[in-house]
Amino acid sequence: MLQIFAPVCYLEHWWLWVADVRKKKFFVLDPYHKTCPCEPRMKCISVQNKGYVISKMRVYVGAPLKKTIVKIELPYIDISGQKIIYDCAVYVMKWLEIIQGKYEWDNWTQAKVDHFRVEFVSRILFHKMNRERE
């Protein structure tokens, strides 16, 4: 399955834009919200801010280029999500690692999320790019 992923952080919350090339679909995976929660968040995907990126992703998946986009409607996928408000980045990183076009991420326990958090922090902390430089 060919997909394009765009992780987004806005107002200290992470979510994932996904473009499915084969199905020519564009959607949002958000571990905390099931619909777009507020008007300012919709503005973050306006043409002036992120619209160019979304427009190019839409063209890549086969949709026509729209030069006069005022508002972009992105469907939210209804999935079980985070229980603790600061776990959104953990969910997004894990989705990027395991996503295969089916919802394998449903019903995560808090223990699993805690494990992912430790796993990702360890990877980031001990990555070769994170070593002390002379």
Walk me through this protein's architecture:
The protein is α+β, with helices and mostly antiparallel strands and 134 residues long. It contains four helices and three strands, in the order βββαααα. Strands 1-2-3 form a three-stranded antiparallel sheet, with helices on one face. Strand 1 and strand 2 form a beta hairpin. The chain is globular, with a radius of gyration of 16 Å. The termini are far apart.
Mean model confidence by pLDDT: 68
- Count every helix, treating DSSP H or I runs of 4 or more residues as helices: 4
Outline the low-pLDDT stretches.
none
Total tally of structural domains: 1
Structural class based on helices, strands and sheet pairing:
alpha+beta
Shape: globular
Assign a percent range to the helix content: 25-40%
**Strand sequence of the main sheet, in spatial order?**
1-2-3
What fraction strand?
Answer: 15-25%
Largest sheet: 3 strands, antiparallel
Output the helix-strand order. EEEHHHH
Head-to-tail CA distance between termini: 43 Å
Number of strands: 3
Oligomeric state of shown chains: single chain
Radius of gyration: 16 Å
